[in-house]
Amino acid sequence: MRVPGLELEIDRLPTPLPIWHARVDADAWQVAARAVAAARGRLVALWGTDRGWRVSGGLAVCAAYALDDGLVWLDLPLDADAPAYPDLSPQFPCAVRMQRAAADLLGIVAIGARDSRPWLDHGAWPADRFPLHEQGADDATASRNPVVDYPFVRVAGDGVHEIPVGPVHAGVIEPGHFRFSVVGEKVLRLEERLGYTHKGIEHRFTQFAPLEAHRLAGRVSGDTTVAYAWAYCMALEAASQVEIPARARWLRALLLERERVANHLGDLGALGNDAALTFGMAQFSRLREGWLRLAKEVFGHRLMMDCIVPGGAAVDVDSTAAEGLRSQCAATLREARELRSIYDEHAGLQDRFVGTGRVGPELAAQLGLTGLAGRASGQTADLRVDHPWPPYDTLAVGAAAHRAGDVAARVAVRFFELFESLRLIGAILAAMPAGERRTDVRLPEGASFGAGWVEGWRGEVFVALELDGAAQGHRIRRCHCHDPSWQNWPVLEHAVIGNIVPDFPLINKSFNLSYSGHDL
Amino acid sequence: MWKIVRQIGRTGIRSEAPPDCDDLQRVEAERIQRELLAILGRALTIREVDAGSCNGCELEINALDNPYYNLEGLGIRFVASPRHADLLLVTGPVSRNMELALMRTYEATPAPKLVVAVGDCGSGCGIFATSYATCGGVASVLPVDVVVPGCPPAPLDILRGILTAVRRCRTVAVTKAP
Lengths: 520, 178
Hints:
Number of helices of chain A: 16
Strand content of chain A: 15-25%
Number of strands of chain B: 5
Structural class of chain B: alpha/beta
CATH class of chain B: Alpha Beta
Strand order of the largest sheet of chain B: 2-1-3-4-5
Distance between the termini of chain B: 58 Å
Number of helices of chain B: 6
Strand content of chain B: 5-15%
Largest sheet of chain B: 5 strands, parallel
Radius of gyration of chain B: 17 Å
CATH architecture of chain B: 3-Layer(aba) Sandwich
Largest sheet of chain A: 5 strands, mixed
Structural class of chain A: alpha+beta
Shape of chain A: globular
Radius of gyration of chain A: 22 Å
CATH superfamily of the largest domain in chain A: Cytochrome-c3 Hydrogenase, chain B
Shape of chain B: globular
Number of domains of chain B: 1
Strand order of the largest sheet of chain A: 1-2-5-4-3
Oligomer: heterodimer
Largest interface: A-B, 66 and 53 residues
CATH class of the largest domain in chain A: Mainly Alpha
Helix content of chain A: 25-40%
CATH architecture of the largest domain in chain A: Orthogonal Bundle
């Protein structure tokens, strides 16, 4: 792995996907940003860390870039007195909110960043205490001065008015605030304000034993519990240099693909519903319920929480269970095909889907649109295809590729991936090797780094883990979980421009982003 | 259109005679419906508030709307505004960033202002605990009538929690009557 234009001492982490870690200085930080942008790489995540008094290093800012060869995690130590680093937003617009979040949680700032408004900080903790500092905020320091005058960008002009929506929404969904500036029905601008579900997950990680924290990772975003648990365990296993049994990898892939199917079924129904085809909702939610019930029966949990554990999997499938899973795939495939042809031929539905909430490939590339929504806008990245780690290396995953970037394209990608995952589940069940499903994880003696990178149903989930060694009691020093929603929320603001207000729920649903995974 | 009709015909009415649905659960759902009608004699309206959950509870609350549970068939409906609601269904460890919005929602809800806290987090025993960013269970912010533990609780448990709150409200109203 080389970052173009940089000579770096770079460590390959022992992860199933190609991931490297390197220390850089401020100059190299900037050179790397420009080089990655020029090579059309992606900024996967940006976060800060406080290594405190235990390790010489103290505050640092980290960036994870995806290049053709894999992922590189750059680590820039910062000056304790003036913790600042060069702004990445000129190259990667999606860095803006991640930088604002890092400023809220650690007081580290991006030099020259144009937007320095607080993001996750709504006034719940004192301005001079930073939650992720070694001596950070605790409940005793919690303040109760909610910020109620957040400075939204105002749109001026004849007939422009604002529609504030949220944080409590009309449907059964997560909380967030949307500020629409509209003329008549037409949306001129949407500005999001998120952070309402911030529950201090990253701080909470430091209170967990490394071998227990997969449960917390599995609750970063409930709909993506399998992907997060896998990414966390991958990071822990890398940090501990543990090789998991072959069967465990296959079981994990089985769970991940089942999670993808369950979510796509739910979304396809909800998208029909938001376009007034309640028939679609009834049909797909029925299929989803069947899917969850079988998960309960086979894996002991409807959403498959806590099924992936450090060292392997907590669940297994015997031949009876495998037969049940297989026949459910066949039935789901049959029904979903029928439903797709109904969706495709339904003029009213297509009228709402086609051309709505369009994000063209160029804009998508510029803003870093990722995951499922990216694949509907010409961004082909899919870790299962680009870096097929076992067992995906033998499964030849088909990649969805649409370019229209509208609601219809995001629906089409969901159908494609639904059918592909149903095929994958069959292939996994057919080829799953026998053997142990779990091995012991021995935590490392010294401090160590690990990373996990998994293609969840919404997009790439990334976990960066730093462990303390035995001398400090094997604590989690830092665990950063990154949800693809960070990249995609700002793109939603663009997708809705020029559309009518009543189409917003439909456009929003077509992205179906996580609030909890973003707010942490 | 004929395809839709054919699909509906082929699917049948799952909420009454689901071939692959647990019989016990079906009986339970019917009992709940009878009790609800007996107690309220009208529809129950619910405003759901996510006060910081991981969205797992929302997935299961949404599942109540699928044909198996047939929530609307039981006379229970989710409404868009707290001003139209009899009951608040609250999830999450109540993040401090949602505390104000939750209290305002409660204030906007007319009597009887029933509150059901859903999930381990809402019940006060969740994985996120109390921290600089969370207040703890819903009861640390609002008076709670019923808690439904589980991570997340199954749809039928949530339904049972809702009914328990309604029944308790009825008992209190009867005792208070002169």
